[in-house]
């Protein structure tokens, strides 16, 4: 019996060797947006994991687009050079496809690193003026964002396009646009944050306008063979905000514009009450896959190989994106293969240990 989790999956000209994706996980360890030695180690361990795709963390398309001062960026030649150095070393012993999540943190930018506590940096203490669709702060004690002008929007589109061209020069295999979790594009989609009265606010059609323009800018800047996808919320978990119907409509609009995959998450609002549990976001991905037909990625507490296989084999999603599971076990796919009775290849340096621990026939 075929194990669907380990079947290849096509995305435009790219073929993933299996359906397991290492989720983009911010490390807050860059210097002025530049990848550091930490990224070499972090990326390298997952590039030896046996996953089908490694997605690099949310990367700011301009300095104000970083979530924290320690977040990655790809807006300058210096950023690109540091990225190239780290990526070259990390990929030395792996041919795993590598994607990059591009984003702008919007009104949630200038935040403290998680280990520094909750909250944000003041502008006179290493922070910066944050941007948003409207002058509505993320939370009562957060800074009021500067409502974006048409000129700001034009600059944003250019920044996304420029970062995409840099990603292509770096040899990255796909792009994921971050439009989830209350960051800039997500806040344009949500009527909680978006109080605009121009062409970018009000109706769902208007609220989708900027995220769709960003997708079009990235798609136009990317090589024709490079897959481009979008992560967005299936729900905001707040009344009168993004809901399932609006998420389906957004997914359909993306698919109509040539989006190669959608990565369906949720939340990111300060007032959300989220019923967290294993696979709690999977139904949102399943609905979009069923109603829109676009390639779909499920994410959110997918803990066991059996659960991951059930999601893919049951048609709820085409891929599963796993974060915390990889932090706990950087070789999660090895465990999944052993559990599901699949033979996989392992780099020769690890082959003896892997075959002794998991299946004695691997790689022999």
Automatic annotation (TrEMBL):
Record bears the keyword Flavoprotein: yes
Pfam families: Oxidored_FMN
Sequence ranges assigned to domain NADH:flavin oxidoreductase/NADH oxidase N-terminal in this UniProt record: 4-340
CDD domains cross-referenced by the UniProt entry: OYE_YqiM_FMN
GO molecular function, a single term: FMN binding
Organism in which the protein naturally occurs: Pseudaminobacter salicylatoxidans
SUPFAM superfamilies: FMN-linked oxidoreductases
Protein name: 2,4-dienoyl-CoA reductase-like NADH-dependent reductase (Old Yellow Enzyme family)
Keyword Flavoprotein: yes
Keywords assigned by UniProt, alphabetized: Flavoprotein, FMN, NADP, Oxidoreductase
InterPro entries: Aldolase_TIM, OxRdtase_FMN_N, YqjM-like
Cofactor(s) demanded: FMN
